[in-house]
Amino acid sequence: MPSKNDNEDFLELDEKIPCCDSPKISEEDGYYVCLNCGLVFSRILDDSPRRAFTAEEIEKRKSNERVYSPIGPRTIIRGNRDARGSLLSPKFKSKFNRLAKIHRSLTTSFERNLWIALPNLQRLQKKLSIPDQVAEDALRIYTQTVKKKLTMGRSIDTLLSASIFCALRVHGIPRTLEEITNAAQITKKKVIKSYRLILMEILPKLKLKVQHFTSDRYVDKFNDELNLSMKCRNIAVKMIKKAKKNGFNSAGKDPKGIAAASLYIASKLCDENKTQKEISDLAQITEVTLRMRVKDLNKYNKID
Predict the structure, then answer these.
(1) What pTM does this model have?
(2) Domain that holds residue 103
(3) Most buried among 90, 250, 282, 293, using CB within 10 Å?
(4) 14 plus 76 within the same structural domain
(5) Cβ proximity of 34 and 19 under 8 Å
(6) pLDDT tens, position by position, 123-165
């Protein structure tokens, strides 16, 4: 796989390619893309730094950390080198070791937690395409969980995913819990427990209220992702409303399953056929659940 140096050489080479009048090559979502004309050059296979083998390469390797982090200034005191990177004399080495030890003891657990959580939040925000305002509220919620010491016995990724899910609910953005757990690569059960904890302990103090999504909201989301027409979307919404008017009780039923079933029937009526597997995979439900909701909607809409 190419190293980081190879990627830099590739960028320098591609800047000479006349894709447009003023090419501007950038790394976007794992691809080299020209920001002016949109031409995709190639995929980034590996962006890890090249390993240092010789003593000279190790000496040249940048060893200091960035001064500013997303949560404020971060100063690192090391006990074997000065500001220029030169080795300290034995006289000063013991003093700097002592300073480094004192500095580590002054760093609070709150700061250490956020140093780990913030990069993960930025990664999930980019992966899930979350708006900045939602990410800011998710950070507010997570910060309160850390201050209330709810992180004891719980992983950072689990509480961070639950905070993102809460922020999405507060802003009324219909994103499924499965999307977040798949991006964070954690189990759904743990996130649900953390979500309920935040719902009871944190949101009332922040004066935030979550919105409970109905099946109508998921119809819009699934309709766009399945590339169905607006006519199909309108038929699906009318079917759900008519079924509820005729006595269909949706309590205890997953709104994603009802939305998926209505779109499946509507796609058949509009000759925009979608398979059960396509719709069930998108809605993160089983095909059995989809068929059961289809029977319910057909029954209450009196469609044979």
Answers:
(1) 0.62
(2) 65-107
(3) 293
(4) no
(5) yes
(6) 899 888 888 899 999 999 999 999 888 888 888 999 999 999 9
Give the rounded percent of residues in the chain with a pLDDT score beyond 70: 81
Tokens 């990627």 locate to: 7
pLDDT of residue 192: 92
Same domain flag for 76 and 117: no
Q: Is 184 exposed, middle or buried (0-12, 13-18, 19+ CB in 10 A)?
A: buried
6 and 41 co-located in one domain: yes
Helices of type H across 25-89: 55-60
In angstroms, the CA 260 to CA 276 distance is 9
* Spatial CB neighbours of 94, under 8 Å, sequence gap ≥ 6: none
Give the integer Cα–Cα distance in Å for 184 and 136: 18
How many domains does the chain divide into?
4
Q: What does the pLDDT read at residue 88?
A: 72
Q: Give the SS3 label for residue 101.
A: helix
124 shares its domain with 196: yes
Q: What angle do CA 72, 76, 81 make, to 5 degrees?
A: 155
Between 279 and 18, the more confident residue is 279
For position 181, which CATH number holds?
1.10.472.10
Residues 147 and 197 in one domain: yes
Q: Token pair for residue 270? A: 């509009």
